[in-house]
Amino acid sequence: MKQAVLVGPEKIEFSEIERPVIKPNEILMKVKYVGICGSDIHAYYGKHPFMSFPIRLGHEMSGEVVEVGADVKDIQVGDLVTAMPQEFCGECEPCKSGRYNICNTLKVIGCQSPGASCEYFNVDAALIKKMPKELDAQLAATVEPAAVGVHAVRRTTVKDMNVVVIGAGTIGNVTAQAAMAEGAKSVLITDLSDYRLELAKSCGIPHAANTGKMSMQEAVDQAFGGEGADVFFECIGIGPTVNQAIECSKKGHDIVIVGVYGSMPQINMAWVQDREFRLIGTLMYLEKDFQDTIDYMAAGKINMKPLVSKVFPFDEYREAYKYIENNKDISLKVLIEV
Ligand SMILES: [Zn+2]
Ligand SMILES: [Zn+2]
């Protein structure tokens, strides 16, 4: 079978390898789509702190089951599936408390172990999720990033809250949609790109503001009037936007850090202390978040279709990265059709 491996910065190599032989607890899928994520882009340029070469990327995937291990129940040949890409130990303190998404020895498929950029992919059946009939193979490959948003909103309380999401890329967009799905009173999303803000609106986000054209405080006032903002989600990963949250949040409230930080930011910690803010981290998701994401997508409460910017055939894997580089503003989710 064919595979695509990232062997060095900006170097993807195609090769032929044996089709995997599955273990009794595994399934084999014929891979249909692989999504390219922000972390893949960091890896592609050799700038991911926790990934090294060579690596076969692909932690966002969909596929059709073509073989089922002897011990596997409830999954049949022909099922359209996606996988939760988390390999965890089950024995460390976070795992024992049910927080295996932050397992002390967490390995992510497609980041620290080989991913789905290949024709046939074997996965532990415990990580497999079947798709309901409402979701096609492209949408199935977008469940993974959407689940990041659902977990993020569950790190605090969004029900009946005025929520601000800073950043309208894929993760900001799904965080805003997840907040709506989980009963937020209202949601404001901010970005510097009108294109991304319009896209968020088309996904049902009630308020969108370009903070290149107005201040965050003006945007909050415009969206929520005198009520103010109850909870912020920072989905960019730079200091200035964390400080926007700190400086526009009501006293005693939560700020969730969703963005991935490439360098150490300068944060207005004096206000965090004085106003009793809580800065809360979030990483990936748990099984319930993932399943609920599938259900939200099937029910139309999280809409991933508008986020799929472009689809490239497997042979044009390299072109896909070039496209993202040259179309930063308008490329959200780029898929590879395997
Ligand atoms: Zn991802
Ligand atoms: Zn563990």
Global structural class = alpha/beta
Query: What hetero molecules are in the model?
Result: zinc ion
The outline comes out as: globular
- Uncertain regions spanning at least 5 consecutive residues: none
Regarding CATH, which class of the largest domain?
Answer: Alpha Beta
Largest sheet: 7 strands, mixed
Q: How many domains?
A: 2
Radius of gyration: 20 Å
Mean pLDDT: 97
Could you say what the CATH architecture of the largest domain is? Answer: Alpha-Beta Complex
Which fold name fills CATH's third level, the topology of the largest domain?
Quinone Oxidoreductase, Chain A, domain 1
Total number of helices: 11
| Residues in helices, as a percent range | 25-40%
Measure the end-to-end span: 11 Å
Q: What proportion strand?
A: 25-35%
The fourth-level CATH homologous superfamily of the largest domain is Medium-chain alcohol dehydrogenases, catalytic domain
Q: In sequence order, what are the helices and strands, one letter per element?
A: EEEHEEEHEEEHHEHEHEHEHEHEHEHE
Helix and strand layout, with pairings?
Layout: E1 2-8, E2 11-16, E3 26-36, H1 38-44, E4 60-68, E5 80-83, E6 86-87, H2 93-96, E7 107-108, E8 120-124, E9 128-130, H3 137-140, H4 143-153, E10 162-166, H5 170-181, E11 186-191, H6 194-202, E12 207-210, H7 216-224, E13 231-234, H8 239-248, E14 254-257, H9 269-274, E15 278-281, H10 287-298, E16 308-313, H11 317-326, E17 333-337
Parallel strand pairs: 10-11, 10-13, 11-12, 13-14, 14-15, 16-17
Antiparallel strand pairs: 1-2, 3-4, 3-8, 3-17, 4-5, 5-9, 6-7
The structure holds zinc ion (2 copies).
One zinc ion is lined by residues 37, 39, 59-60, 144-145.
